[in-house]
């Protein structure tokens, strides 16, 4: 392998082929610090041509490649295994905004651009790029595309796949497919773009993308709403869609424990309500009208919700600071849970009509099997995506509780499947869920996926061991 590494150094420069353990360490451990892999080297190409050259070298020497963006993934999809035979290909140096086409409402970017960088570039051009995640300051758009990330604005704008018009991809042979077309309509054969988005780097390496831009809303309205149960939340969502139509851009569900953990570990955030209720909704409207019209629309919605006895209490943010406080409460749930200790996470999606029954049924099943277990339930109710996390009983042995992860996953995922849902909504499969995938995908689906993988990566060098 020394000859291979020397060729890599010649291709991209010695400084960008990392072989010392200290230099490699940040690229080998997952974000939640649950697993650490080993690699032959970490390589950091500067452009698409260098990515292609490295892939050709890997194909020639049969060296596996683990593509990596910001390494913020949650399913162990961006770190290597323990064999030490793979290279980690970090795309962090591919970080340029290539073009903003204002007439076409698109932005063309390198895959290593931080999501926040793209949001800011769009804003400076008086546009909105609506993908919004808690990790937007550290995740890259290549990673977002590889997992088809969702976030808080899917209800109105769609997943990352729906925000992307074109891709640039290096194939497993080291060829460069230039699909950077900013077209809304292109019905010329198989949709390679949609196939590669969500593939987690197993079919090719995304190096660039053309993304949709939107006009910036002129005003926004934010409300934090207290409810007794999820059935009320689902009914409120239906009402909000009826009254607000496309102006409804955010609808987040938060259970009582989620909010309590945030206030416990982040006391700097202002409490919204004096008394706790079982569930809350964080609702956002975005309009192209003035603030007064937006406020009236939001007030009318909440008044109607009170009249229909769908809500217990509600607070409308009267300033940008209050709105930011509301969103900080929502975005801090994962960090608060991490401070609380270890937990078992689930990223699931369900038909919205089934969510209330699923939560009640699964809560009951878990508490029967694991008494006093605590459910931290929150997520994007507007598009049916729940982060249904299970924490150990208060004061319990956390490591001992985690030994039951397989049993807990089985209860949650079986219930998800029973209610017509998916075991991965926006985080992907990686290695964490690949065995689970075999339980819930039909043999026909698995056969088709394997055929696609073999066709595009016959030597299995592209992120091997992930998904399948």
Automatic annotation (TrEMBL):
Q: Can you tell which superkingdom this protein's organism belongs to?
A: Bacteria
Mind telling me which InterPro entries this protein's record contains?
FAD-bd_oxidored_4_C (IPR004113), FAD-bd_PCMH (IPR016166), FAD-bd_PCMH-like_sf (IPR036318), FAD-bd_PCMH_sub1 (IPR016167), FAD-bd_PCMH_sub2 (IPR016169), FAD-linked_Oxase-like_C (IPR016164), FAD-oxidored/transferase_4 (IPR051264), Oxid_FAD_bind_N (IPR006094)
- UniProt entry keywords in alphabetical sequence: FAD, Flavoprotein
Q: Which Pfam families match?
A: FAD-oxidase_C, FAD_binding_4
PANTHER family this protein is in?
BLL6224 PROTEIN, D-2-HYDROXYGLUTARATE DEHYDROGENASE, MITOCHONDRIAL
Q: Which family does it belong to?
A: Belongs to the FAD-binding oxidoreductase/transferase type 4 family.
Q: What is this protein called?
A: FAD-binding oxidoreductase
Lineage runs: Bacteria, Pseudomonadati, Pseudomonadota, Betaproteobacteria, Burkholderiales
């Amino acid at each position: 392998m020394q000859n291979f590494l020397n060729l890599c150094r010649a291709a991209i420069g010695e400084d960008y082929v990392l072989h010392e353990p200290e230099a490699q360490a940040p690229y080998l451990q997952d974000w939640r610090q649950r697993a650490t892999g080993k690699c032959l080297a970490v390589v950091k190409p500067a452009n698409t041509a260098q990515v292609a050259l490295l892939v050709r070298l890997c194909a020639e020497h049969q060296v596996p490649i683990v593509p990596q963006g910001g390494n913020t993934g949650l399913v162990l999809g961006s770190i290597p295994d323990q064999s030490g035979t793979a290279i980690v290909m970090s795309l962090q140096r591919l970080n340029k905004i290539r073009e903003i086409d204002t007439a076409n409402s698109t932005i063309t970017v390198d895959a290593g651009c931080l999501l926040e960088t793209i949001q800011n570039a769009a804003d400076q051009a008086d546009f909105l790029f609506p993908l919004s995640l808690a990790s937007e300051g550290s995740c890259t758009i290549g990673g977002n595309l590889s997992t088809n990330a969702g976030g808080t604005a899917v209800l109105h704008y769609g997943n990352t796949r729906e925000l992307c018009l074109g891709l640039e991809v290096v194939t497993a042979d080291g060829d460069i497919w230039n699909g950077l077309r900013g077209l809304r309509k292109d019905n010329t054969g198989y949709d390679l773009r949609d196939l590669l988005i969500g593939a987690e780097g197993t079919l090719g390496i995304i190096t660039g993308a053309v993304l949709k831009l939107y006009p910036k809303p002129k005003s926004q309205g934010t409300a934090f709403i207290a409810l007794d149960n999820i059935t009320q939340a689902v009914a409120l969502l239906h009402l909000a869609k009826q009254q607000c139509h496309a102006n409804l851009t955010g609808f987040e569900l938060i259970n009582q424990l989620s909010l309590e953990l945030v206030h416990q570990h982040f006391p700097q955030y202002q409490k919204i309500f004096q008394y706790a209720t079982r569930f809350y909704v964080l609702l956002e409207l975005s309009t192209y009208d003035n603030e007064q019209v937006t406020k009236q629309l939001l007030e009318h919605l909440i008044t109607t919700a009170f009249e229909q006895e769908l809500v217990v209490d509600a607070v409308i943010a009267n300033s940008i600071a209050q709105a930011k406080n509301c969103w900080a409460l929502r975005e801090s749930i994962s960090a608060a849970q991490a401070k609380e200790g270890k937990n078992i996470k689930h990223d699931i999606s369900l038909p919205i009509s089934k969510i209330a029954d699923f939560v009640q049924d699964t809560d009951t099943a878990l508490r029967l099997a694991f008494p006093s277990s605590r459910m931290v339930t929150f997520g994007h109710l507007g598009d049916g995506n729940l982060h249904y996390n299970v924490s150990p009983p208060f004061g319990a042995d956390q490591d001992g509780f985690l030994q039951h992860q397989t049993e807990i996953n089985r209860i949650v995922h079986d219930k998800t499947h029973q209610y017509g849902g998916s075991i991965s909504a926006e985080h992907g499969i990686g290695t964490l869920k690949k065995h689970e995938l075999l339980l819930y995908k039909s043999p026909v689906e698995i056969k088709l996926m394997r055929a696609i993988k073999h066709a595009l990566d016959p030597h299995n060098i592209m992120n091997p061991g992930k998904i399948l």
